[in-house]
Amino acid sequence: MKKKGASALIFMAVLFVFSACTMNTGKSGKVRSIGKTSEILVVVENEQQWENSLGKTIREYFGKDQQGLPQPESLFDLAHVTKTSFSDLLKKHRNIFIVEIDKNSMEPKIETVRNHWADPQVVIRITAPNKNIFLQTFEKNAGIFIEKYNQTERERIATLFKSTPNKEAVKAIKHNFGLQMIVPRDFRLVKSELDFIWIRKETVDYSQGYFIFKEAYKDTAQFSKASISARTNRMLQQYVSGPTEGSYMTLDETYYKPDPLIATDFSTEYAVELRGFWDVENDFMGGPYVSYTFTDPENEWIFTLFGYVYHPSKEKRNLLRQVEALLYSVEFTK
Fold it and tell me: Rounded distance, CA 126 to CA 137, Å?
């Protein structure tokens, strides 16, 4: 729903207030935020706003399907309250989006505040003189909003996982690759080679894990989708055997072909993101994956972090988001 006109009036006023997190409070003394994983609380002025085109557009963007999942799952689950019901308890929610229509405002304004009422938290407020300008402003910046909420989710997950590390796996990653990453205690080191590491978590219901692999960096062609996919398949076939004889993990592009994206907010200066499906050759396992490919500061090596989930016939979004947060924790050791 694209609106035209009044574009010259649109501007963004963004305020970032960063504060570190601990398990109970941040340095500022704010309480830990609440809310379900991948949930946004939308604060509207009245129920009519939520039911009309304004609420429909918010649901259309925040509730669209997450790419690279075998079953339809939305980017975020949405809850909504009216401004009069926006209590002190609800102000502790981790992801908050506030709608404000003020006919006295001369132009639309976007405010983004980190850790305002709780920690970690992102609060985004759009103030606009009428519904049409609100929608125009929202649609123009929806992608930015989504990434800010994604970032808050990753930060929360990383903070929780960081408190109980698997020291053996952390040490192996540092030794083999010169990388520092969060490895939770319930993730175990399965395979450790100089060019390949496999870390995974197994439960009765699901499996999560990630691989780290590298090869000598030669040129930018190694960042192409074809090169990343070929290199990934080569490593998977060599190191990741399936449950039956002659089976091995591989990428599956039969039904979904991933488009490479530049992860501008990744911890390295430049990383190529791929999302898609994996399966097991000569077997019947499969699921979603997300990978990030980048070089070291000296451009000697090209690395790929490949995270995956196996949870047959069940929802996978939040499990994959957890793995994504672990991949985002990567840093080069000094």
Answer: 8
**Among the residues of 88-222, which ranges form H helices?**
131-162, 167-177
How many Å apart are CA 264 and CA 247, to the nearest integer? 36
Token pair 């995956």 is found at: 308
172 in the same domain as 320: yes
The span from the CA of 6 to the CA of 132, in Å, is 9
pLDDT, tens digit (0-9, with 9 covering 90-100), for 104-129: 988 999 999 999 999 999 999 999 99
CA dihedral 17, 115, 37, 63 (to 10 degrees): -60
- Residues ≥6 apart with Cβ < 8 Å to 9: 106, 107, 108, 133
Residue 252 in this model has a pLDDT that exceeds 50:
yes
Examine the fold and report which residue of 162, 180, 208 is the final residue of a domain before the chain moves on.
162
Residues paired with residue 31 on neighbouring β-strands, in sequence order: 25
